[in-house]
Specification:
Layout lengths: L7 H13 L3 H14 L4 H13 L3 H14 L4 H13 L3 H14 L4 H7 L5 H14 L5 H17 L6 E2 L6 E4 L1 E6 L2 E11 L4 E7 L5 E4 H6 L5 E6 L8 E13 L2 E11 L11 E4 L6 E6 L4 E6 L22 E2 L1 E3 L2 E8 L3 E7 L7 E3 H4 L5 E3 L6 E2 L2 E2 L4 E3 L2 E5 L2 E5 L2 E4 L14 E3 L1 H4 L2 E6 L4 E6 L6
Helix pairs in contact: 1-2, 1-3, 2-3, 3-4, 3-5, 4-5, 5-6, 6-7
């Protein structure tokens, strides 16, 4: 019955629901049908924007949200869509205003309310969160586990500040260690981290991870207690792994010394990333502008200027074109760059120095190229081995000011999480591609400069 529906509001609500449940093929069909049947309905256009956002075609999502608002500026889901887009683009101040506006337009929309609650002062948040969670329990299944772990960590910290730098923040250069599986082939770069003055751990430096994650063995050797429990997931078919938090009195990374350090740790004996002791997310250094030189093996950190705390949030302060930067989208500690494949389809690719290969999501790849099975390539991640690996026939990638023909991108399902996803990842740019650049990463402003260094590289 829904298929023949003549009501654009019902059609829009159905499309939104399919997107929220991650039913991509049905949502794609519904979006096409809505475009044909309701070309001028702002609600249907906003729902198509939600679908574009979900498949990470951000230019198209922005175009549709703005088109809906142009037709009717009080379209709540279009305003909310722009909020989500602007928040990922590090335009936090504008995003906040859009979220408040969306909630004013439709205070009964649960998705809008769940984000609106974050902007309230803590007392007000506490008062309204309970009834909201009771009314919408499905939003908060995982939330509870994280909350409990956060509470245990807070007790352990006992008012101490996490990762308090000893000495002043100043310009610093750290030397990378090369992490090799074979003598002639570096799989990545890493940093040495010592916990509680113990022996130095080899940590993979990973722009595709967040914070510091170590093995259970490293935590136990340092005699730290296990706090709380949560799930950690990554590439692989074995599903999420159990993880816990640990707090140490101090830690040292190169010449930087910190007091009171919090780590995530994965339970069990299985390795995290090859034979290393763990990984350190690049976002750990997000107070700095980060310069990565893979050729010279250097990580150079320039402190971000101080700025007064501002509850309204800040918008990006550096115009990207001024410094040759490419704006990127941020989700948690992850950075994604909008990438065109074969001049056709746009999607978000994760910047992932922790990945030994660059990959493309198999569903996304099928939109612009053929893929075929490949039994020779083994892909392994935090969540174990990947069973079905394909190869893309032809994939020309275009991002920033850069275009690369890549024959033989590994393709597999990058979006196999059972959890609700805000958007689908189209691919990952791993160390083989990223090490062709000197990278400058500015987490605060959501900017990356891809400075191409390999001459005559076609």
């Amino acid at each position: 019955a829904a298929r023949n529906n003549q009501d654009p509001l019902v059609a829009a609500a159905l499309l939104s629901a399919l997107v929220y449940e991650g039913r991509v093929d049905e949502a794609a069909d519904a979006a096409d049908a809505d475009a044909a049947r309701f070309p001028d309905s702002p609600e249907a256009i906003a729902a198509r924007g939600e679908f574009a956002f979900y498949v990470s075609d951000m230019p198209e999502a922005e175009r549709l949200f703005k088109a809906a608002i142009k037709l009717k500026n009080s379209t709540p889901r279009a305003v909310y869509g722009l909020f989500r887009l602007f928040r990922m683009a590090s335009l936090y101040r504008t995003a906040r205003l859009l979220c408040l506006e969306a909630h004013e337009l439709d205070p009964d929309d649960a998705r809008i309310t769940s984000d609106w609650l974050r902007y309230l002062v803590p007392e007000k948040q506490k008062e309204l969160l309970g009834p909201f969670v009771a009314a919408h329990p499905w939003f908060y299944e995982h939330f509870q586990q994280q909350e409990n772990t956060a509470a245990e960590v807070k007790d352990e910290l006992n008012q101490r500040k996490a990762f308090e730098l000893q000495g002043e923040r100043k310009e610093t250069t750290l030397k990378f260690i090369y992490i090799r599986d074979l003598p002639q082939y570096a799989r990545g770069v890493g940093l040495e981290v010592a916990i509680q003055g113990g022996k130095r751990l080899r940590m993979l430096f990973d722009t595709g991870a967040s914070g510091i994650v170590v093995t259970q063995a490293a935590v136990d050797r340092a005699g730290l207690s296990h706090l709380g429990s949560f799930q950690a997931s990554g590439v692989g078919d074995k599903g999420p792994r159990n993880a816990f938090a640990a707090v140490s009195g101090d830690c040292t990374i190169g010449t930087l010394k910190f007091k009171t350090c919090i780590f995530g740790a994965l339970e069990g004996k299985r390795a995290i990333a090859g034979d290393d002791d763990g990984l350190i997310g690049a976002d750990f250094f997000s107070d700095y502008v980060i310069h990565l030189d893979f050729q010279k093996g250097l990580l150079h950190l320039t402190p971000q200027p101080d700025r007064p705390p501002n509850p309204q949030g800040y918008d990006r302060t550096v115009p990207p074109e001024e410094a040759g930067f490419t704006p990127v989208f941020r989700s948690g500690g992850h950075l994604f760059v909008s990438t065109k494949v074969n001049g056709k389809t746009s999607g978000l690719f994760l910047l992932d120095t922790g990945a030994a290969l660059s990959n493309i999501d198999s569903s996304f790849a099928r939109l612009s190229t053929k893929i075929h099975g490949n039994d020779l390539v083994r892909v392994k991640g935090v969540s174990g081995d990947v069973k079905e690996v394909f190869e893309a026939d032809k994939a020309e990638l275009q991002f920033g000011r850069f275009r690369q023909r890549n024959l033989g991108l590994t393709a597999f399902n990058l979006n196999n999480s059972s959890d609700h996803q805000e958007f689908r990842m189209a691919g990952t740019l791993g160390i083989p591609i990223l090490s062709m650049f000197r990278l400058t990463i500015d987490y605060r402003n959501g900017l990356v400069d891809f400075d191409y260094i390999l001459e005559n590289h076609h």
